[in-house]
Amino acid sequence: MYKTLSIVGSQWGDEGKGKITDLVGSKADYVVRYQGGNNAGHTIEFDGKKFALRLMPSGVFNPNTTVVIANGVVINPRILKQEIEMLKAEGFDFKLHISDRASVIMPYHEELDAYYEDLKGDMKIGTTKKGIGPAYSDKINRIGIRTSELCDTELFLKKLEYSLEYANKQLTGDEYKKYSFEEIKAEYLEYADLIRPYLTDTSLLLDDAVKAGKYIVFEGAQGVMLDIEHGTYPYVTSSSPTSASIPVNAGLAPRYINNCLAITKAYTTRVGEGPFPTEIHGEVGERIREEGREYGTVTGRARKVGWLDLVQMKYSVRVSGFTQVALMLLDVLSVVEEIKVAVAYELNGVQINTIPPLESDFAKVVPVYKTFTGWNTDISNVRSYEEFPQEAKEYLDFISKELELPISVVSVGPDREQTIVLKDLFEV
């Protein structure tokens, strides 16, 4: 059996993937970021310090782990430079490989992101305006610039000329900046010098590593419900975070991806626009938000808070092929006296057990809840399943039974030490 582990957000992102990737990083030979860009971040806390990463894989803090940014990622070189400089300033020695087939985010992509969002008016999707969507669009339109092309000066300047012309023709209106060829050329040739030493055929690198029996962790950004194919379209990201996308996004055979850990909050959160059936309004929602520090790593935006949604979770299990669950932020629910879990939906008076394809129908679903008694006690110092209050055990057992998956990890706080590992995560 291959020693690979996929760590995938099972909800709308922000589930705590970075903490778990960091946790298993001590065993991983490789940690691979396989999709997304710097529009989502991973926050990792240890030794009293907090680190926010947007592009670098979470395993970067382990000097024995090789970290890989694969071809499915869109890379903003400005952000990459900031993170490399931050890590070096903090004294971390890391081994980094960047795919020579990854796409590059250009300054005009960020401007186009804002332009497209403004054009949508009432139909805006709440993008972070980091240029992610336009960079993926250029990739699909076959006018994007890859890392290997950025590092080939003659080819880069040739491609920049017509890609920039294409972008500037779209940016009508004085409120949007039109970039000049010379200013991008100067900045990005410097980035080419930064990236060049790290460029690798990461598909070949990882294929060799799998065959050599190395421990490999794949981490994505966002979550299944933001998947461009299977998420709550159109309020989704521009790539696929599911484990099913890893072979394409990392250049590996599908047979290597057979062990997938669902990173799941003990409740649910969402940022941006779009329906959110289990959203909690009022004082209880505010209490959970503050206790869980539910504000975006990159944007600082307040996240909408809702009860755990098992209809949504079962959908994620189906489309992403999860084999186990890491339940995060269970300690946050200690502040509420009564806990609800959505077990079904009602749509136009009819009970359904899946997510409807139309956003307008999803906005109308009414959750059917099962209610649990809260444990109303601090569990942040619990270090084994046996130490949990009975009410917390009942909550965990119910989730595991409903999803038909083992809960392998329970997190009761932000620090590395506040993580209860119930089984070897690399075992299927």
Description:
A hairpin with a 2-residue loop joins strand 16 (338-347) and strand 17 (350-352). The longest helix has 18 residues, at 153-170. The protein has a ten-stranded mixed β-sheet, with helices on both faces. Strands 14, 16, 17 and 18 form a four-stranded mixed β-sheet that branches. Strands 3-4 form a two-stranded antiparallel ribbon. It starts with a strand and ends in a 7-residue tail after the last strand. Helix 3 crosses helix 4 and helix 6 packs across helix 7 (181-195). The protein is built from 13 helices and 20 strands. It has helices at residues 17-24, 77-89, 107-120, 132-141, 147-150, 153-170, 181-195, 202-211, 246-250, 283-291, 310-320, 359-362, 390-403; strands at residues 4-9, 30-33, 42-46, 49-53, 66-69, 74-75, 95-99, 103-104, 199-200, 216-219, 260-265, 268-270, 304-306, 308-309, 324-328, 338-347, 350-352, 366-373, 407-411, 419-421. By secondary structure, the protein is α/β, with parallel strands linked by helices.
- Strand content of the residues, in percent? 15-25%
Task: Give start-end ranges of low-pLDDT stretches.
Answer: none
| Molecular shape | globular
Mean pLDDT: 93
Secondary-structure map:
Blueprint: E1 4-9, H1 17-24, E2 30-33, E3 42-46, E4 49-53, E5 66-69, E6 74-75, H2 77-89, E7 95-99, E8 103-104, H3 107-120, H4 132-141, H5 147-150, H6 153-170, H7 181-195, E9 199-200, H8 202-211, E10 216-219, H9 246-250, E11 260-265, E12 268-270, H10 283-291, E13 304-306, E14 308-309, H11 310-320, E15 324-328, E16 338-347, E17 350-352, H12 359-362, E18 366-373, H13 390-403, E19 407-411, E20 419-421
Parallel strand pairs: 1-10, 1-11, 2-5, 2-10, 5-7, 6-8, 7-9, 11-15, 14-16, 15-19
Antiparallel strand pairs: 3-4, 12-13, 16-17, 16-18, 19-20
